[in-house]
Write a structure and sequence with these properties.
Helix content is about 40%, strand content about 15%. The strands form three sheets. The chain has a seven-stranded mixed β-sheet. The chain has a domain of about 260 residues: Type I PLP-dependent aspartate aminotransferase-like (Major domain) (Aspartate Aminotransferase, domain 2, 3-Layer(aba) Sandwich), CATH 3.40.640. The protein is an alpha/beta fold. A hairpin with a 2-residue loop joins strand 1 and strand 2.
Length: about 425
Amino acid sequence: MGKKADEIIRRDHNVFLNTTMIDYNFVLKGGEGDFVYDINDKKVIDFTSFIGVYNLGINSNEQVRNAIKKQIDVMMHGAFNEYYSELPVQFGEAFIKMFPKGFGRIFLCNSGTEAVESAIKYAKYYTKRQYTLAFYRAFHGRTMGSLALTSSKSIQRSHFGPFTGVVHAPYVYPYRCPFKHREGEECGTEYIDYIRNNIIKREAPPDEVASIIFEPIQGEGGYIVPTKSFVTGLRELADEIGAMLIDDEVQAGYMRTGKFLALDHFGVKADIYTMAKALGAGLPMGATIVKSDLGDVPEGVNANTFGGNLAAVAGAYEAIKQVQKNQKKMEHDIKEKGAHIMKRLNEMKEKYEIVGDVRGLGLMIGVELVKDKKSKTYATDERNRVMHIALDKGLLLLPSGESSIRVLPPLTISRASIDKGLDILEESIKKVGR
């Protein structure tokens, strides 16, 4: 990266507590559209959307930028939890139309972890129950309530326990199904039977479970796409025991998979949804959305200072209007781009022993690297080397799970940038695979 980058990283380490999970020394200067620029002005293709935030392109949507600038000149913060304001109401009226019929109550906050905290609070309030059922490899945030649900990496929970009121169950992993002679939908069914006959029967009293929370595609856990049988089984299980089903759409939602809600791919509706990341169009914003028939809550049950922040809402409102206006075209484009990427990645899977699995929906795709296809041993070091080589060649990537790579480009990415990025990825895989 050069002396300038090394100096910035050194100064960073002197000032900030460490949050970086891997040694990936990319120093950002700026970005636009499909590309980012490092501190030395090197142009790099973005396959990360900066963890799914820039769904509409990196800093390139002029209408969104202008809406934010205009609102900043009027007022940035309006204490929406204390006073009324029209702009958040306008956004809420537009935003709620993206959810299934019968949803009409929203709580605005600043991040995914806040949205999740609020979801589990509302589920407990509505059901008057105490337990939450979450899943292994799940990531729902790092504040204490959502951290209790998170089970992606032990370091995220280290020294912060004990955690109470949460029970974890296995999340279906089709590539590594532990049930012999079970594949595809059968594997998902076996997982649901295991949860019902072991977790619910022996650990989580069914009449005390307030909610079941899950990601429609596990993000930090490895970009794992569940079977339809598993997702429909969760809905059935929640109904059986009278629990709320909470769908965490923080990373998978907002058109990322080709539908506004990733859960819609499975023909299932949740009781409570959470969303963040792309929602704020680059600014901090989260939301919890509940069914109208659950009713309102008393004053003071939940609130925050910056939820409904006017500058963030201005960008979010303009972005959601654009999504609504162009939704059909976006769905078509995302499906087409995703299919093209999957085809290329599956060709790599056939060619290289190190590529164990390729999975995803739309433009949320995971590539799992392994030592060899027979053993399926995680190839964490190899994954990290692939990412470093790719960065040197001009492609920005993010890790996921034990040894997976995320392919998470802006939804607006061009075919030319896709192909160039995939060429770099293949060159990097080929070099490490030797």
